[in-house]
Design goal:
The chain is mainly α and about 150 residues long. Helices cover about 40% and strands about 5% of the residues. The chain has a two-stranded antiparallel sheet.
């Protein structure tokens, strides 16, 4: 959390932020925290500290809050949906009348021709475009497969 907060010019003590990661995450629905969702939970904690908000303040339907864009994106479903969904009352509050996506976020994306994209980028990219990385050391190889011993 220090690495996330320290580079930002914050008008508050960033050491308070980790104390709100758990309450901020619990408000969102105690979602699984992987890189994109853990960033949202961190954003929520920073937002709460910067605005002197408690979990009760955030949950209070009568208190108007301008949520961070990452929190709105999460509740829209742009990062997917937890199996049980988000807490309904907070979803309504965060989305302010907007509807969450119907279905998967990927369903709204246009298909990408990866071979065409590679051919377009190769002349502008020095070296080799790495198609796979060895799990043992992260080095690039175009011939690696799960059956290959690194």
């Amino acid at each position: 959390m220090h690495c996330f907060c320290a580079p930002r010019p914050l008008p508050y003590d960033y050491q308070s932020v980790p104390k709100l990661v758990f309450p901020g995450g619990a408000l969102i629905g105690d979602i699984v925290k992987v890189t994109p969702t853990s960033k949202v939970v961190g954003d929520m904690a920073i937002f709460m500290v910067a605005n002197d908000l408690t979990a009760d303040d955030v949950a209070n339907p009568d208190k108007d809050i301008a949520f961070p864009e990452s929190v709105i994106s999460l509740f829209k479903g742009e990062l997917g949906f937890p199996p049980e969904g988000f807490p309904k009352a907070l979803e309504v509050k965060v989305l302010k009348g907007e509807s969450p996506l119907a279905g998967r976020a990927g369903d709204y994306l246009s298909p990408v021709d990866l071979d065409a994209a590679r051919k377009e980028l190769e002349p502008r990219t020095p070296g080799t475009i790495c198609t796979r990385r060895r799990p043992s050391n992260g080095t690039c190889t175009t011939g690696w497969s799960p059956a290959t011993t690194c």
